[in-house]
Design goal:
Structural class: alpha+beta
Number of helices: 3
Strand order of the largest sheet: 1-4-5-6
Largest sheet: 4 strands, antiparallel
Strand content: 15-25%
Shape: elongated
Helix content: 10-25%
Radius of gyration: 19 Å
Length: 167
């Protein structure tokens, strides 16, 4: 149960944060303490059911056929919880009014959220946006490496920084 505790709640209540607990503590922000603006300058999100592109041929053990939906032969959703999510199909970063999305099976997407808040104008192939795209790619790579789940390695020693802030 301890691994499911929120770092914020642990810090707020004085409970020791379990080794390997993921996430960042928001307690300093909630209490008006100084916080790292760089640490919270972007938002990372991911969506998916696993890192492997599954096909209808290898759905054995994946759950009932009714719980798995295939789009162009690729499993996209499983509601019965039998699939352990170790990675995701789609990853995105939002920073400074821009959103960059990478998907395992779809073209890259880049949106200027201030000009086009409904994400209708994909600017990923616009050469005028290359600098923004490169900056967001670097930020997305930072998050992907930071959130890599390597707790399966027996000799792994989790890092424990104040509030779990890296910057």
């Amino acid at each position: 149960m301890g691994e499911r505790l929120s770092r914020t709640l642990c810090e707020a209540t004085g409970i020791p944060i379990p080794a390997g607990a993921q996430g960042r503590s928001l307690w300093p922000i909630l209490t008006g303490e100084p916080y790292s603006e760089a640490e919270f300058s972007s938002v990372y999100t991911e969506l998916g059911i696993g890192g492997a592109a599954l096909t209808e041929a290898n759905q054995v053990g994946f759950g009932d056929a009714a719980d798995t939906f295939f789009i162009d032969g690729i499993a996209r959703t499983n509601y019965d919880g039998t699939q352990v999510a170790m990675g995701d199909y789609r990853r995105a970063i939002i920073s400074d009014g821009w959103k960059l999305i990478y998907d395992l099976d779809l073209p890259t997407e880049l949106y200027n959220l201030e000009r086009y808040p409904f994400e209708l104008n994909n600017l990923a192939s616009d050469p005028h946006c290359n600098d923004v795209k490169q900056r967001l790619q670097a930020e997305l790579l930072h998050w992907c490496i930071r959130l890599d789940d390597n707790l399966q390695v027996e000799r792994y020693m989790p890092k424990s920084l104040p509030h779990n802030w890296r910057r």
